[in-house]
Amino acid sequence: MIQFEVNREKCTQCGFCAEDCPVHIIDMRGGWPHIAAEREALCYRCQHCLAICPTGAISILGRQPEDSLELTGRLPSAEQLETLIKGRRSVRRYQPQNLEPEVIRELLEVAWHAPTGVNARQVRFTVIDDGEALARFRDEAYEGLARLVMEQKLPADKAFFADFLRSWREKGVDVLFRGAPHLVVASAPRGAASPLPDCLIALSYFELYARSKGLGTVWNGLVKWTIEDLVPRLRRRLQVPEEHLFGYCMSFGRPAVEYPRTVQHGPADIVRFDPGPAPVA
Q1: pLDDT of res. 278
Q2: What is the mean pLDDT of residues 141-145?
Q3: Is residue 197 a contact partner of residue 248, using CB atoms and an 8 Å limit?
């Protein structure tokens, strides 16, 4: 049951919900929005009907319109959004203190609103939300690397990880985790329509929202390689399901550095489609 309900005291019978439904299962015959029971299985569960209703008359999936955020007058300006995107930095210096649990929860809940293929919404966030727990996980990672170095089993294309181990042992420099107190891993079922893009998009939302709150993030490919290719028992330690594709890792926390301006990349590599004659097959 998708629990599609219409408050007839609020409904103006405008038909916006029926017009905007991606699968056209909302029927306006009879004057009021309605979904036939035999068509409920077709619902994308996207909540477009709830979002588009100008009077807040539609509820679905047990979600009430009054619990949604109002958009009118609350969206950032184009200039503000441009600054946020261009001002995003990969932070590699962090303060050691934990973020408050409610802040981490908020970051993950907002990021989980990221779009997914066919609205599957199957991205899982596995988070290390305590600095001491991450320190133990970090030690296990370096111990695993040390074993590979000692047994001369580091793959040739990952031989440089021996330098990271040396930096940690001799100088206390953590190249892998960058001293961040937290780590989040995005994964999704391999059978999902687009598991890798879903994970990457979710983490992109995560990092932008984190930046808006003055927090730092870094896409941590080194830790991903460590977990996926070098010390696979770490994946089991994180309890990432075997049937999940391991999307990516992101370290995060309060930055120990501040960047007062954006950088200047570009120009963008843009190719304009030429609608000339089609090539001969």
Answers
A1: 83
A2: 98
A3: no
Measured at the CA of 274, the angle between CA 271 and CA 278, to 5 degrees, comes to 125
Phi, psi of 250 (to 5 degrees): -140, 125
Buried b / exposed e across 151-176, counting CB within 10 Å, b at 16+? Answer: eeebeeebeebeebbeebeeeeebbb
Q: Average pLDDT, stretch 97-117?
A: 98
Q: Quick one: pLDDT band at residue 93, thresholds 50, 70, 90?
A: very high
Token couple for 9: 């005291």
Q: Is the pLDDT of residue 89 over 80?
A: yes
Q: Exposure string (b/e) for 209-221, b if CB count within 10 Å is 16 or more?
A: bbbeeebbbbbbe
Q: Do residue 57 and residue 103 come from a single domain? A: no
Domain count, the chain: 2
Report the C-alpha gap between 14 and 85 in whole angstroms.
Answer: 37
30: closest CA among 6, 61, 56, 52?
6
33 is in which domain, residue-wise?
5-67
Q: What pLDDT, on a 0 to 100 scale, did the predictor assign at position 64?
A: 98
What pTM did the predictor assign?
0.94
Question: Is 73 among the domain residues?
Answer: no
Written as six digits, the tokens of 246 are: 């391991």
Question: Do 16 and 89 sit in the same domain of this protein?
Answer: no
- The pLDDT of residue 102 is 98
Shared domain for 61 and 93, answered yes or no, is: no
Same domain, 26 and 154: no
CA 173 to chain centre: 28
Rounded (to 5) percent helix, strand, coil in the chain: 40, 15, 45
